[in-house]
Write a structure and sequence with these properties.
Shape: globular
Oligomer: single chain
Number of helices: 58
Structural class: alpha/beta
Number of strands: 41
Strand order of the largest sheet: 2-1-10-17-14-11-13-12
Helix content: 40-55%
Strand content: 15-25%
Largest sheet: 8 strands, mixed
Distance between the termini: 79 Å
């Protein structure tokens, strides 16, 4: 099957066909040039004279190019000018051709000589000699004889072109399908028909067959209508249950066509999770894969990516295809997964380049088919319309020629598609064709009344609102464009397919999106308006080929015809482009800013080197290497002013020196990164080349906001804006550039503007004003008649909602309260089509009578007020009956309302925690509320301008109450007049509430003055500290001297009898001092009795283990005590270790009136973990030992204020040692990295790369500990880390030290009971948690100590039992899901500060610098860093539990009665009694009097005790609200 071309010049209805066969080959020699010019004898002397002038061969090479003959004078004028070489080089290259760039260079080297020779030739041009027919015949016969006399073989071996196995063509030349990739033009002579059998490189049609058995990626170059889409669908059917298949179609219409063949149109997230084949557009898949959570997780299960119409790479949208392919290829590397890519294309010239871009094996995965495989032969007609482009005469000629061709084809019994380039043109062209046919008496040729289904279709079309469509149908015409309703378009498609209409006037959307062929297609004009450029541009050649692909009906007709009607000056362009197939180029530079920002936001690109590598995966990189000159100047379309003098030879030389274009890519990336940094989308450290995405860049990537729009927002976005301001700014977004103002719409827009609530500053005469009016019209539920306006309104609504959502997140990131509330209202207004001032109950499906009654008689009633009435009262209120009142009552009860309560909890002199309790106050209806109701809760300042803290929360059917803690700063300890808690539903208009919190009477605790200054003292050697030689010998080599904190506090702790409190950072040697105190006490007093209290059993067991190692030297008994005799004096020297919980249980069972005697020392460990149990146990112990000289020595981590704790423990000022975290001797580097991704698996995938970077920063041979939220995440995170390691280090050994003996490792691996751990341990990764068998756990600790395991992954709750440290500690996330006992609702909670301190302590080492990396959510960073750097806040938690109530009731039952004074006496020994004075607000006290506050607390405790004793459930309600974070 072949494709024929015909050239036709048309003017004023005259038509002339030229079909003479001509030779396609141009002359190849100078002699041929002169022979073709005329008299041979007269031409040769000119050549000899030219040679005698010393020509350097440049003119000879110019004369060899016949196409340059008319341009020699232009070339002479250019090189004779006084302009620089750099300036004229581009013009020369354009004329001569980029493939002859060497000739350009040679001409520039000898400009003067070449100019003289060209001038000589011009002045001595040989006369033209016309040959007669006989002379021409004689010359041809002579040429044939000379050719016949030539030998068949020259004797010189030529390298044969490579033959690829799946390139099916009638000529091997098609494999090198581009005649010239540098711009030289080869075309048929004007007015010529290609002879039968002529070879055309890469003809635009063919067939695609895909090898289903190979695992290589496939690229196919096939005809547009040759079932290439079906081949992709067949490919998609393989193993459909094993993976996700993504079918990327370039347009929504095409995607809809594919979906109609394969399945449902729209799906929920749950249905998506159960679906194997997903059809989408490139932009949507780009959006999906930009998201690390939710839909973005689909990419993790992707196994097959089918990209239809790959030749769109040559369009502006091609940048999106490059982006998703590059992202997929990088995903293959980063995840070590197998993702197959199949590219489908009907009309692709340089298919080898695209195959390289898609990483296709040209031997296994590349399939190419030429025109001989086309199912229906195609005739191509090129019609040149006379007249000046755009002139009335040209338009008149175009209309008439179109009619002539249409009428001719219809008369032959064919259907015709007429493609125009504007929606309104479809109607205009159809009406013009109809009127012309009627005028010429040929109207009956178009009628279809004899069609068997005519009356059925006539009834169907009668239901449409489209008047033009109804009118045209009666005359056999139809229209089709994207502005029509989907039902109308479907109707037109069915009618044309059934041959119920003969002519369909449509836009190119039909060619791309719907598989609806006709015998003939006519492209009426080639001028298309480009809204982004604000001007008319030439119709894309790919669009032409796509339209031509619709010609011919396989199985029904034996041929097809394609006509293109264009202006005379554009005829050669389209003939050349369609026949020669100019190679497609990359458009990626135009989208580089947005694509780079998306990759940085996703975390796949972290620095310039990453970005340069990423750019190497694009089609841009492929084409830059093949055709660097096209990408030499203005690489980013107006954004970049860099001047690349490629045409002057610089880029050519650079290509030779740098074939991979590393420097060129580096320049592109650096400039793009700087531009992104200029608009604050990223931060760019030029010294290190690192990128860090900002909130603005992350939001732009998430919501697909263009870089150019962000530039506008930076200028127009302010802290305080009205709804009108927001809508005005939104309308300026470049996403709406395609919305143009049309004169025919002005009346309707003016009418709309009169009905909308917000003023439009720009009016209806600008694009921005039109967008604003349409958007407000959408919200106001206005309707428009013009179908173009209908389409524009739908586009504005769809994109407006997305952009508003992005602006909302930008406002939240800036903490702007006022504009955040406004944007939330606008966002919901677009979604609900309801203004914030409208009746909120309109969101329910109620009858119109109810809404009318509400508007007339209860318009100012809120849903909460209406919910307080009965059904009868509501019926009367709206002047209806009780049944209507009940329906209204049900709606008000289901309207999302909440009640908010709060408690103020100061955490320091300048930090206030607001404990918020949000209770659901509406009835849950799954049909209305679904599975979740999200909402926003934030604290804003008293001016309503700034958001101080914010949370995004979710109510679920099982959720009744949500507890949220907000921590805000109180500058200088002076509280503002007030703050406000604001609740806003994420989905429901009007579901808002606010709670005013007055702060005038707030009492903040005083600033701490208890911190101890670290003195620079000489460090004490252990020989001076311990006088027992046996102990000194035992610790030799372990401790040589005390550190600075130990030296400063040693005397107070060991050599005095007073109570002591040492508050010091983790790793400062507190336990060592405690041990020294124990040994000194035991050696000095034979009958010493010491009790060590610990908050946790793990700490107690660790303490016992450490003490028993030295007990043999002192003859001391070390006991882990849990029995009733713990508080009985032992017979000899004894140290009893007990947990606070065990101690409280023993004390509660003991007679409170019997004192504890003989107890020498009580050592309290880890008082920073003080909870209700610990405090009550220690308080009762102090109460029981008040009559004996028991010494209390206490240790804790660094505290913000330790003075009250010292007072509680009866510590003198000289015995209080409170050091800040920065006072530690050891070097510790602390850094934080924030993330905005919600808690999910995607968050930890995003953390994997920076976590690996932290690990890599450790010195060689050093280890790292990774803390994660839960046990179930251990192995997935380990796999992510190993993947990052493999990518960077290019080794399969993982983190295993390079010098590890494999035989030794295998011996150790054989000892593992859990064989699933072998794969991880063999790569240097281990785990530590209670879910691992103890032998395996101990073995991994042993391998960790030996250095074979370099990475230890530990869940959060195992941090207390982890006995080892590391050079690098990474906390991957600071949130976890908590499920209450017996409950099913999970609540997200923050890590406790004490847990983070414990984790941080694992990075503190005696020798060397430790590194602690905290990966946390952005909103918690300030709180965590403040307390980790300044010390922990500590408050009493006695009132948060029922421990005191249980103790009261126990004493009542034991003693028969308990007076209030008895409780007061015990409370005076508690930490609580000190804090109610220092921080009364925390305990809901209004007075600073201790007695008054304690009396109130005692009264409440006794009331609760009585109720609890009466078996009432109030015993479970504490006096203070329990918090989720424990801060």
């Amino acid at each position: 099957m072949q494709t024929a071309q015909r050239l036709i010049f048309v003017g004023s209805g005259d038509e002339q066909d030229v079909a003479d066969d001509v030779e396609l080959n141009p002359p190849h020699t100078v002699l041929d040039y002169y022979l073709s010019s005329g008299n041979e004898e007269e031409s040769l002397p000119s050549l000899n004279q030219s040679s005698s002038l010393g020509s350097s061969n440049c003119v000879t090479r110019l004369l060899q190019k016949q196409s340059l003959s008319p341009l020699l004078n232009s070339i002479r004028a250019i090189i004779s000018s006084h302009r620089e070489d750099d300036v004229i080089s581009g013009e020369l290259a354009e004329i001569i051709g980029f493939d002859d760039i060497d000739l350009v260079m040679d001409i520039l080297k000898d400009r003067g000589g070449v100019a003289q020779e060209l001038e000589y030739l011009s002045n001595n041009k040989p006369p033209v000699h016309h040959l007669s027919q006989d002379e021409a015949r004689q010359r041809m016969e002579q040429s044939f004889r000379e050719n016949a006399a030539r030998p068949l073989f020259s004797g010189t071996a030529q390298e044969a072109p490579e033959v690829l196995p799946h390139v099916y063509s009638s000529t091997l030349a098609a494999q090198g399908n581009v005649l010239s990739q540098f711009g030289s033009k080869y075309m048929l002579p004007i007015g010529t028909l290609a002879p039968t059998g002529a070879v055309i490189d890469n003809p635009p049609y063919g067939v695609t067959f895909v090898n289903f058995n190979t695992d290589n990626r496939h690229r196919s170059n096939s005809p547009d209508y040759s079932n290439d889409d079906i081949r992709g669908q067949l490919r998609s059917s393989v193993r459909k249950d094993a993976f996700k298949i993504i079918y990327v179609a370039p347009m929504k219409a095409l995607a809809s066509e594919i979906v109609r063949k394969l399945g449902d149109m729209q799906m929920t997230k749950a249905e998506i999770a159960q679906t194997q084949i997903i059809v989408t557009t490139p932009e949507k898949w780009d959006v999906v894969t930009r998201k690390p959570t939710g839909e973005g997780e689909l990419a993790a299960s992707l196994k097959l990516l089918i990209i239809d119409e790959v030749h769109l790479l040559n369009e502006e949208r091609g940048a999106v295809i490059e982006t998703i392919v590059a992202r997929t290829l990088r995903q293959v590397e980063s995840s070590q997964s197998v993702i197959r890519i199949v590219g489908l294309s009907a009309t692709l010239p340089n298919y080898m380049d695209v195959a390289e871009f898609l990483c296709v094996s040209k031997y296994k995965g590349l399939f190419y088919f030429d025109s001989s495989f086309r199912p229906v032969p195609l005739e191509q007609h090129f019609l040149g319309i006379k007249g000046k482009a755009g002139s009335p005469q040209s338009k008149k000629n175009l209309d008439y020629v179109t009619y002539l061709k249409v009428s001719e084809l219809v008369a032959q019994g064919h259907q015709v598609m007429v493609f125009v380039h504007a929606r309104k043109e479809t109607v205009k062209s159809a009406l013009a064709l109809k009127e012309t046919a009627i005028a010429e008496g040929k109207g009956d040729d178009f009628h279809c009344e004899d069609h068997p289904q005519y009356h059925f279709f006539r009834r169907s079309i009668g239901e449409s609102r489209n008047k033009e469509m109804k009118q045209l149908f009666d005359h056999g015409f139809g229209i089709h464009h994207a502005g029509m309703l989907r039902s109308d378009r479907n109707m037109m498609e069915r009618m044309f397919e059934a041959r119920a209409i003969k002519v369909l006037c449509c836009t190119a959307t039909l060619a791309w999106g719907v598989n609806l062929p006709a015998h003939a297609v006519i492209i009426k004009g080639t001028q298309v308006y480009d809204s982004s450029k604000g001007a008319f541009v030439d119709l894309s050649v790919l669009d032409v080929l796509q339209v031509f692909g619709r010609a011919g009906r396989p199985g029904l007709e034996s041929s097809g015809e394609g006509y293109i009607c264009t202006t005379e000056d554009k005829l050669t362009h389209y003939l050349d482009a369609v026949t020669s197939q100019i190679p497609i180029e990359s458009k990626f530079q135009g989208g580089l800013f947005d694509s780079l920002n998306a990759e940085i936001a996703l975390g796949t690109v972290a620095n310039v080197n990453d970005a340069v590598r990423w750019l190497g995966y694009t089609y841009l990189f492929v084409r830059m290497r093949k055709n660097p000159f096209v990408y030499g100047e203005s690489p980013l379309k107006g954004h970049i002013n860099l001047k690349f003098t490629a045409l002057a030879g610089v880029a050519r030389e650079a290509t030779k020196d740098d074939p991979q274009l590393g420097n060129r890519r580096h320049e592109l990336i650096t400039y793009a990164a700087q531009k992104l940094a200029d608009v604050h989308m990223i931060t760019f450290d030029k010294s290190t080349g690192t990128f860090t995405v900002t909130d603005l860049g992350r939001i732009a990537a998430k919501y697909y906001i263009r870089y150019s729009s962000v530039e506008i927002f930076n200028k127009k976005f302010f802290q305080k804006m009205t709804e009108a301001d927001v809508l005005g700014m939104l309308s300026m977004s470049t996403e709406f550039d395609q919305i143009q103002v049309r004169e025919s719409e002005s009346t309707e827009l003016e009418f709309l503007m009169s009905r909308i609530p917000c003023d439009v500053k720009d009016g209806a005469n600008t694009s921005q004003g039109k967008v604003n009016i349409l958007l407000q019209g959408v919200i106001s539920r206005e309707s428009v008649e013009d179908f173009a306006l209908v389409s524009d309104m739908a586009y504005v609504a769809q994109n407006g909602g997305r952009i508003v959502r992005a602006l909302l997140e930008i406002a939240i990131s800036k903490k702007w309260a006022n504009v955040t509330a406004v944007l939330m209202g606008i966002s919901k207004a677009i979604e609900k089509r309801l203004w914030p001032f409208d009746q909120p109950l309109k969101q329910f499906d109620l009858k119109a009578d109810i809404f009318y009654g509400l508007q007339q008689w209860a318009d100012d009633w809120s849903p909460a007020q209406l919910a307080g009435l009965s059904a009868v009262e509501l019926g009367k209120l709206v002047h209806l009956n009780e049944r209507h009142g009940q329906a209204l009552l049900n709606a008000t009860k289901q309207f999302p309302a909440v009640s908010i309560t709060y408690d103020l909890r100061p955490l320091g002199s300048d930090v206030l925690k607001i404990c918020t309790r949000v209770k659901r106050e509406f009835s849950w209806n799954t049909k209305i509320h679904g599975a979740a109701e999200p909402f926003w809760l934030w604290i804003e300042d008293f001016q309503g301008l700034l958001i101080l803290q914010l949370a995004h929360l979710i109510f679920r059917p099982a959720t009744d109450v949500l507890n949220v803690d907000f921590v805000i700063s109180i500058p200088n300890g002076i509280p503002p007049p007030s703050v406000t808690i604001r609740y806003v539903s994420d989905r429901w208009m009007g579901a808002e509430d606010e709670v005013f919190i007055p702060l005038e009477s707030l009492v903040m605790p005083a600033a701490s003055l208890s911190n101890t200054q670290l003195l620079h003292l000489p460090l004490l050697p252990t020989s001076c500290v311990i006088n027992d030689s046996s102990i000194v010998k035992a610790i030799a080599g372990k401790i040589d001297h005390l550190n600075a904190i130990q030296t400063q506090t040693y005397w107070s702790i060991v050599n005095t009898k007073c109570n002591v409190l040492l508050s010091a950072p983790v790793g400062s040697g507190k336990s060592t001092l405690a041990h020294v105190l124990i040994w000194m006490t035991m050696t000095q007093h034979r009958g010493s009795w010491i009790i060590i209290i610990t908050p946790r059993r793990s700490v107690a067991l660790e303490t016992v283990s450490e003490l028993r190692a030295f007990s043999k030297y002192t003859g001391t008994t070390i006991e882990y005590a849990s029995g009733h005799g713990v508080l009985d004096r032992p017979r000899g020297r004894a140290v009893r270790v007990i947990t606070a919980e065990q101690l409280l249980d023993i004390i509660l069972k003991r007679d409170n009136n019997i004192p504890i005697l003989g107890l020498d020392v009580v050592i309290c460990e880890n008082l920073e973990l003080l909870d209700s149990t610990y405090e009550l146990a220690l308080s009762l112990l102090r109460h029981a030992t008040q009559t004996s000289p028991t010494r209390f020595v206490s240790f804790s981590g660094s505290l913000t204020d330790a003075s009250d704790m010292a007072d509680w423990l009866d510590v003198d000022p000289s015995g209080l040692h409170s050091f800040r975290p920065r006072d530690r001797d050891q070097s510790l580097v602390f850094s934080t990295t924030t993330f905005t991704i919600p808690q999910s698996g995607a968050l930890f995938k995003a953390m994997a790369k920076p976590a690996h970077a932290c690990i890599r920063m450790a010195p060689p041979g050093e280890s790292a500990i990774i803390f994660i939220p839960s046990l179930g995440q251990c192995k997935p995170i380990a796999l992510d880390l190993l993947t990052q390691c493999a990518l960077e280090m290019e080794t399969e050994r993982g983190y295993l030290p390079p010098d590890t003996a494999l035989e030794y490792l295998e011996d150790r691996l054989a000892r593992l009971q859990d064989k699933s751990l072998i794969d991880f341990v063999s790569k240097g990764v281990g785990f530590f948690h209670q879910g691992i068998h103890r032998p395996d756990r101990n073995l991994m600790l042993e391998l960790y100590a030996e250095g074979l395991i370099r990475i230890l992954i530990v869940p959060r709750d195992s941090c207390w039992t982890l006995p080892v440290r590391a050079t690098v500690v990474v906390v991957m996330g600071t949130q976890y899901f908590h499920v209450e006992a017996g409950g099913s609702d999970r609540q997200l909670r923050d890590y406790d500060l004490t847990e983070l301190v414990r984790m941080q302590g694992r990075a503190v080492r005696q020798i060397g610098t430790g590194h602690f990396y905290l990966f946390c959510q952005a909103e918690t960073k300030d709180t965590f860093t403040r307390f980790l750097n300044e010390g922990l806040p500590i408050e009493s938690r006695l009132l948060e539990t029922d421990d005191l109530v249980q103790w009261i009731n126990l004493q009542k039952r034991r003693d028969g009665g308990l007076k209030a004074q008895d409780i007061l006496d015990v409370l005076s020994f508690t930490f609580l009694s000190r804090r109610v004075v220092s921080n009364p607000t925390y305990y809901d006290c209004t007075s600073t009097s201790r007695d008054e506050n304690l009396s109130r607390i005692v009264d409440e405790l006794m009331s609760r005790a009585e109720l609890a004793d009466s078996s009432l459930t109030l015993a479970t309600t504490p006096l203070l609200t329990q918090t989720k974070s424990g801060i």
